[in-house]
């Protein structure tokens, strides 16, 4: 019996010492690792009260904007307060905080990394009311309740709820009705569009002889390799995905109007001079010559519709970005306008 007591005593003693040693080693591993994401820290002095943090928070009652009372120095400071009993430490608030430095500091949220594609903030989804046919397929496809709403017979995306999954864009049956627009670098995107338009205009104008001799019922088909503008586009905006989509959208919707002028047919009747709204067409009595300044030309086509001697031809060019023999090219189709009905 005494050996049983001794055994129990030894067992209790060993457990006790092991507990003590384990407790010491556990103390070592409770040090926060570098990647540990704690509750957000608030640096209230930087807050601009935009409310982005409260909109982004997925946990009800975890974050609230409060405002100090006004005093002699001015309005009271507004700033976020974190309720640590509701905060799930997702880090969304710190991610969206636009101030520099940030008002909310939090460890990195690995779920927000681009490869996880939770919030690819490059795009914002919006409905083009003009094109939308109110089929509501986007609403059915949207995984977030209330992210797409119908109000006053209009479909709209509630940006505060949209998680940028892109489901709506895939579901929409009308090209362009739901748009996934890149919201950053808008000026760069405009510069790329200008580059596309100017390059295409110059290219088409260099084919004036072919246009002049084109029979009025025929199409003129041209190709411009994308490589002619690609490097310049990437210099403006070094993001291949955005640059390509901007070029694709631009060429998809673009129509360029081209006026050609065959001076040899001009009979100096000068009807076009009076019709031109910008003064781009002038008559020089000394040279007995009617001239057109293409820089002033609006391409309104008044001269084309007025000239009785077919000096002016008016073409519409349409574009499509496509692949030919493994190379991306802008396909160009030009057709003479039948506006003048001659
Ligand atoms: S992108 Fe996704 S979350 Fe946003 S509105 Fe479209 S379907 Fe809804
Ligand atoms: S799917 Fe497109 S067309 Fe249909 S309601 Fe939505 S935005 Fe409008």
Automatic annotation (TrEMBL):
Pfam families, per the entry: Fer4_10 (PF13237), Fer4_7 (PF12838)
InterPro entries according to UniProt: 4Fe4S_Fe-S-bd, 4Fe4S_Fe_S_CS
Highest taxon, organism lineage: Archaea
Alphabetized GO MF terms: oxidoreductase activity
Domain 4Fe-4S ferredoxin-type: residue ranges: 38-68, 78-107, 123-152, 153-183, 257-286, 288-317
Protein name: Energy-converting hydrogenase A, subunit P
Species name: Methanobrevibacter arboriphilus JCM 13429 = DSM 1125
